[in-house]
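Section 5.1 Outputs to date
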Amino acid sequence: MINGERNIEKPIRWAMVGGGRGSQIGYIHRSSALRDYNFELVAGAFDIDPERGQDFGVNLYVDAERCYPDYKAMFAEEAMREDGIQAVSIATPNGTHYEITKAALNAGLHVVCEKPLCFTTKEAMELEELAKAKNLVVGITYGYAGHQMIEQARKMVESGEIGEVRIVNMQFAHGFHSSNVEENNASTKWRVDPKVAGPSYVLGDLGTHPLYLSEAILPNLKINKLMCSRQSFVKSRAPLEDNAFTIMEYDSGAVGTVWSSCVNAGSMHGQMIRIIGSKASIEWWDEHPNQLKYEVQGQPAKILDRGMDYLYSGALADDRIGGGHPEGLFEAWSNLYTRFAKAMNAADRGESLEDVWYPGIQAGVEGVRWVENCVRSADNGAVWVEYQ
């Protein structure tokens, strides 16, 4: 159980780029990073408007002199301080992730980056090589992976409880953008602008979340080829899609599907992963994150609950309060930030950390690679493509 006791020698001196006033995701980063005393927020370049950013930072108890006008100034100034930052979280629009992550790594900083890591596999692999060369951690905020029942699903698959994996059925299909909401919503408008959002909308913004869950639960399953069809039902979003279907074939002979959509009218969130094996199936919905459905062929369906003694010890290690009490997204993100901190601390000490998994630089690379292959398939007439 996680109860707030120290995980590392000292809190990591930490900063943010972006995530300023009005940023929902910025608050999630701060709440999750600071919860277990693994990080200490000491600096930031919180806003494109320096005065607004400084005012916001001071209200977070950050010294005014350490609220910087931009990330370049912050990295340069902090490098000259004995108590300078050790890590940075990047919570800015997609089109800036590559340049800021690269600058942070070159400045010797660990990174937590919003996805996508960048726009192309070539760029992603460049960042991967740079992180390896400098022995720095890059964490990607696939926040749903921090839910306790994802670890339970990992262990059930690993232990053979569902048998040979045959089908992986995934979706992230909400309905909040089923109309042209970006006309009056700046935080949505940039997501449908290719210059800022990149080559896709819902494939990268939504579909990569359940895709990473599948990678976490099924680490040995590799995609051989895929076929993708994407649509822009709100026509002004073209060439970016607001709906997409992807079919995948894995090297084991298993098959998978991903439905990515923001036009599933009436759906609150609609993120799900169902893994079907030769003996049983497991299913997790993020709207009911404290439960995992377990269905053995020929037996009554079971609902496994978070925090119960019948779960694997690895799942219970992520527990923050006894069974029966609901945990949610903030707890899941806090679990990931705890893992990021342990990985960063181990890297700084030159130690290996084989027993802790987290969405790292390879997860970032694979998310970019998947989107790139999906777009290539869809834009060539929804054809099968070899996974590159």
